[in-house]
Design goal:
By secondary structure, the chain is of the alpha+beta class. It is built from ten helices and 15 strands.
């Protein structure tokens, strides 16, 4: 814990910090602060120390640490748990929700052994290659509004990705962030209810592909999936991706549901599904249609070849021409 607290002070500081100032802030001895510094250096953190000035964090390794990612004073990220491996960050959030964990808790894992996608699918979670992050939220709003949260989350992911470099992120309805037409991230939102059947919490889970190569995905997935590293000169640190994502998720939660029009406008601008021929997949059946627009509630309005129309609330809309049918 002391090591994480020291790292939090270093990563949050814009100027060098003296050992004395840190020891007073943390209520420990200067010797304890020095030992924490040495432990961080052993893990690969580059920390400059100069007499009369103090300590300054110069660079950090590709590790995930609560000390670097905790954001005191904001809702999302007020508590961050980093695990080497777990079955699913969504499952871990739900377990902690049952124990009374507060809104804004973030769980991150370096690897998932049972990563989950939509409609009961598995989600590839290679160790050290992606960012697997879930946030626990305890909303005070209607179920109708909560049903729109997944679409909001897709916008937040796109914004976070674009913080990392010169990237342009799109969305395939409902909630697939894309880079150059290939899927970058999976999003899964799950609800929990109390004994009286009332909404107790929401868990928003995201798996962002960070450093996977085509070989990592394999022949089948590489045709439709991509990673940040394939669009940048080098893959970003997972902690930098997590930091950007936590910031955007906090902005989302501070805005929800009040700024629906802002998120809807951006969602429509980024959406690659509209004005395209699509194949709707619902309850195991598929139908061809033309996707006309995104409605006010983020549902998809489609027109069928026979002239019939429908507002689609769930399922998948595979887009013709987007890596075959996506």
């Amino acid at each position: 814990m002391l090591k994480d607290n020291v790292l939090h002070l270093l990563s949050s500081a814009s100027v060098p910090l003296s050992g004395q100032a840190m020891s007073q802030s943390l209520g420990v001895s200067r010797a304890a602060v020095w030992k924490a510094m040495e432990a961080l250096r052993t893990e690969g953190y580059e920390i400059d120390s100069r007499p009369g000035l103090g300590y300054r964090l110069l660079s950090a390794p590709d590790v995930l640490s609560p000390g670097e990612l905790t954001r005191l004073g904001q809702i999302v990220g007020n508590r961050v748990i980093c695990l080497d491996v777990t079955d699913s960050t969504n499952n871990e959030c739900k377990r902690l929700a049952a124990e009374g964990a507060p809104s804004g808790l973030v769980v991150i894992a370096g690897e998932q052994t049972g990563g989950k996608g939509r409609r009961g699918r598995s989600f590839q979670s290679l160790p050290g290659k992606g960012l697997y992050l879930s946030v626990l939220l305890r909303p005070q709003c209607s179920l109708v509004q909560i049903q729109q949260l997944t679409a909001w989350c897709a916008v937040a992911v796109c914004r976070a990705v674009e913080r990392l470099g010169d990237l342009s992120c799109q969305i395939k309805w409902v909630n697939d962030p894309l880079l150059d037409g290939k899927k970058l991230c999976g999003i899964l939102c799950e609800l929990g209810v109390d004994d009286d059947g009332r909404l107790d919490y929401v868990v928003m889970g995201m798996g962002i592909n960070v450093s996977q190569s085509e070989a990592d995905f394999g022949p089948e997935l590489s045709a439709m999936a991509t990673s940040l590293g394939q669009h940048m000169t080098q893959p970003p640190r997972r902690a930098d991706v997590a930091s950007a994502l936590i910031a955007e998720l906090n902005t989302l939660w501070e805005s929800f549901p009040r700024r629906r029009e802002d998120y809807l406008k951006e969602y429509r601008r980024r959406c690659v599904t509209t004005a395209r021929e699509v194949r709707l997949i619902q309850d195991g059946e598929s139908r061809d249609a033309f996707a006309e627009r995104i409605n006010e509630d983020f549902t998809l309005h489609v027109r069928f070849p026979d002239g019939g129309e429908e507002d689609v609330f769930s399922g998948e809309a595979s887009v013709r021409g987007l890596y075959g049918y996506a």
